[in-house]
Amino acid sequence: MKKTTIFIIILLAGLAYKAKSQEIEALVSINTAQLAPENRVSVNSLAADLQRYINNQRFTSLEWEGPKIPVEINIALSGGNRNMYSAQVFIASKRYIDGTDGGQSVALRLLDKNWAFEYNLGANHSFNPQRYDPFTTLIDFYMLLIIGFDLDTYNELDGTNIYNQAKLIATMAASNNADGWQTISQPGEFTKFNLINELTNFRFDEFRKLITSYYNDGLDMMNNQRDQAMENLAFVIQEMADFKRKKLTEHSIMIQAFFEAKSFELAETFKGYKKHPGVFKDLIYLDLANTALYEAAAEGKSYSN
Q: Domain map of the chain by residue range?
């Protein structure tokens, strides 16, 4: 009886350890509208298989003690002949906000239009970041990128080691001449390699530290010290604009990714804000594509197309 009890305790402790160490809680959906009916059979279990793969996988050696990172993945499939598929994948991650009852902020919104892989019904996948796999390598890369970004939002540059792991995956995929992993691109082109290159480049450490402040001194304080949090956020945006103005001579993929995720949050947060009206000028400078959004916010309005 004692041996049985000890075994159960060890088993439960092992399960708790595993649960604590997992970093991500993913929700996966598949759009098969572009597939011929006969090509949909092989992907009937794709969403469940991928969701299970992510949610049961440790992507790092970290002891993940906080809440898992919420991630939504939507995959739009095309092709399907001989079980070969092309896909566009949209990935969004969120970050829990301190001082709230489960409040979340969108952290990253990423769209990858260049994904091709073979998939068979009920395929079994294993995590091996040192081996290129057309299906799992792309997922592994983005999950590491999401984990690195999440770590950066809590402590300055904490995501560095994880970003370096993601870059090793990108380099490995590029060495296999895999589609979508090219290292050569047009200036300012949004590619996986360009993004991870900036995230691992010390020149952008200052901007990464500002992202930490955006969360710690802004969003995390908003519920309990709103006035101070607004002051802090306005200062962070000013510093981001100064960084772009003084430190960059080219388009930044990382800044683009940050504001693609944050534009609506920023507009809603600063809507009608009068204390530092220059914040809207800074936002437009940083994120020219969303000028109309910030102009509406400056007038105290919500933007509508």
A: 21-200, 213-298
